[in-house]
Specification:
Elements: H1 2-31, E1 34-43, E2 49-53, E3 59-64, E4 77-84, E5 96-107
Parallel strand pairs: 3-5
Antiparallel strand pairs: 1-2, 1-4, 2-3, 4-5
Length: 111
């Protein structure tokens, strides 16, 4: 009887280890989807949204939580690190959507 209990405990431990490993792999894959984009940041049409235009005329609709403080950088050339928010996964969609994690000013103006 003790052998069966130890076997069940060992099996549960093995299942937990596999689940934890899968979660870690998924989190690692999500973090590798980060994108770094530089361009001119402008206020978007809706409150809390922004548009980033790159030098090669690619357009990104950018959203972020308050910690990224994008509104302080409107009218500046910036570098944004974020995760693609496109549900379709199509890289050719325009404008692309980007959920910003951080922003860094490159130049005080876009000109």
């Amino acid at each position: 009887m003790k052998t069966i209990k130890y076997g069940i405990v060992a099996a549960c431990a093995l299942v937990c280890a596999v689940v934890i490993a899968d979660v870690r792999v998924a989190a690692q894959e999500a973090s590798t989807n980060e994108t770094k984009v530089a361009g001119c940041l402008q206020a978007g049409e809706a409150a809390g949204t922004f548009t980033l235009m790159t030098e090669d005329k690619q357009t990104y609709q950018v959203t972020a939580d308050a910690s990224a403080e994008l509104s302080k950088h409107v009218g500046q050339r910036v570098e944004i690190v974020g995760v693609s928010a496109d549900s379709s996964g199509e890289a050719s969609a325009s404008p692309r959507r980007l959920a910003a994690k951080s922003v860094r000013m490159i130049a005080a103006s876009c000109s």
